[in-house]
Design brief:
Blueprint (H helix, E strand, L loop, with lengths): L3 H13 L3 E5 L10 H9 L3 E3 L10 H6 L9 H13 L6 E5 L1 H11 L5 E5 L12 H11 L8 E2 L3 H7 L6 H11 L3 E2 L1 H7 L21 E6 L7 H11 L7 E6 L12 H14 L3
Parallel strand pairs: 1-2, 1-3, 3-4, 4-7, 7-8
Antiparallel strand pairs: 5-6
Helix pairs in contact: 2-11, 4-5, 6-7
Keywords: Hydrolase
InterPro entries: AB_hydrolase_1 (IPR000073), AB_hydrolase_fold (IPR029058), Carboxylesterase_BioH (IPR050228)
Organism: Streptomyces bangladeshensis
């Protein structure tokens, strides 16, 4: 079910007549993490929407006050929620997602719901096999305790520093943690961890559909959570699509926080340039 805020965004975008851009955040972030991106895309002539995952609070303060609202969200539920938002748009949107949002972006594209899409440091889907040690360490905050499957799990600063902010200064890492980090549902990480041994997994992408549209995968060179091995394996699966452009771009010196840290504008510009090629 869409929220009142999401319905307002949908109405505004439909009334604008512009090409919509739907932004999909990942774990441990909120829709507000896209606010600066939305401004850039709006100024470029698009119409931005920043829907939340089901039950997302509006602010970081609310998220810390009521962390329980994040619990019990599956990958399938989140993908269906964004599909519902897109189904209310009058024009097929561009879709941009980060981390698990990058996975959701590819799921939506695989359903034929995106005119073109950008997946930034995307979480792996069924069939993506590399499992680097750094990814296991980054996920251990959740996967280390099976009870976290049904819980909302916050990151300590040290965990955030390793998983997100390893490529920035100590001062910036602490600022990012205070400004953006919120609890996240444990379920998606458990789903991703067993996707390759669960034939009924929700964590799957139709990579071959003719309706997928152009896709760019962006990878941060120093990302611990979704390192190049995972991003490139996702690209190789997607590149088998004979009907649409598939590209990959590595951002030098960047970690998993590349969408929110001080270098966010370069990443936004890379995504914007790709999407503009297919909408103008």
């Amino acid at each position: 079910m869409t929220t009142a805020q999401e319905r307002e965004q949908i109405s505004r975008v439909n009334a604008s007549g512009r090409t919509p851009v739907v932004f999909v955040h990942g774990l441990w972030l909120l829709p507000s993490s896209w606010d600066r991106w939305a401004t850039v895309f709006d100024e470029a002539g698009f119409a931005s929407l920043t829907p939340g995952w089901p039950d997302d609070p509006d602010t970081v303060a609310e998220a810390h006050a009521h962390p329980e609202v994040f619990a019990g969200k599956s990958v399938g539920q989140v993908a269906d929620h964004f599909a519902d938002v897109i189904g209310r748009l009058e024009r097929k949107p561009l879709v941009v997602g980060h981390s698990f949002g990058g996975l959701i972006t590819q799921m939506l594209a695989g359903r034929g719901l995106a005119a073109a899409s950008v997946a930034i440091d995307p979480a792996p889907f069924r069939g993506v096999l590399p499992l680097p040690f750094s990814s296991l360490r980054a996920a251990s905050a959740v996967l280390g305790n099976p009870a976290n499957y049904h819980r909302a799990v916050p990151l300590t600063y040290e965990q955030f520093r390793y998983a997100f902010a390893n490529a920035v200064s100590e001062q910036e890492a602490r600022e990012l943690y205070e400004r953006f980090a919120v609890p996240a549902p444990g379920e998606p990480l458990f789903q991703a961890a067993v996707a390759n041994i669960n034939p009924w997994s929700e964590v799957k992408v139709d990579t071959l559909t003719p309706e997928r549209g152009p896709l760019l995968i962006i990878s941060g060179e120093k990302d611990h959570t979704v390192p190049w091995a995972i991003a490139h394996a996702s690209y190789r699966k997607q590149a088998r699509n004979e009907h649409a452009v598939t590209e990959i771009h590595e951002m030098p010196g960047r970690g998993h926080a590349l969408t929110i840290d001080s270098g966010w504008r370069e990443v936004a510009g890379t995504a914007l340039a790709f999407l503009t090629r297919f909408t103008r």
